[in-house]
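Issue 218. Parser rejects a valid record. Input:
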Amino acid sequence: MIAIIDYDAGNIKSVEKAVVKLGYECEITRNIETIRSAEKLILPGVGAFKDAMDRLNEYGLTDVIREQVLTEKKPILGICLGLQLFFESSEENPGVEGLGLLKGKIVRIPDTADLKIPHMGWNSLEFPKKSILFDKVVKGSYVYFVHSYYLQAEDKDIVAAKTFYGTEIEAAVECGNIYATQFHPEKSSAVGLRILSNYLEA
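Output the parser choked on:
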């Protein structure tokens, strides 16, 4: 069973539909024992960094996520805001600590005259290394983004995909049992389903 972690963030139902379409049993949950018994975890989300961390802390989910991912080595996939929460901090809300599963910071996409922020739309991916997430995904494939902030990972070796939107965007990471995408695979047509399937099958 795949546990989709529920902390009142947006876009959770579309992730559930994509997982079910791929033939997997899943449950949207914030029940700690359900999370502990799941085979894999997904942390989706759309929204603000501080609000998300406040909800995760309020529901007692911060410690169980760290326990399952860091101690039990359970696979987890972060999507959009979920990716950002895996890291230590965000310029969106200075002083708010993230989950700290990986080292790095979240910064705002720089303002440029010809680009709108938030970044909303389809961008192509480049792959700096081989990865499980992007197995059988063709270089230059397009995926769907909605974000105003992006990752600067401390360890560049964990970056599995990049794109460009006014600046180089670290679009996905893969590090042991930790996977994450800044884009939305559940909204990225057949390519996105392939990426989700790669995670679920791994």
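Fixed in the parser; the record now loads. Residues 3 and 27 are 5 Å apart (CA to CA).
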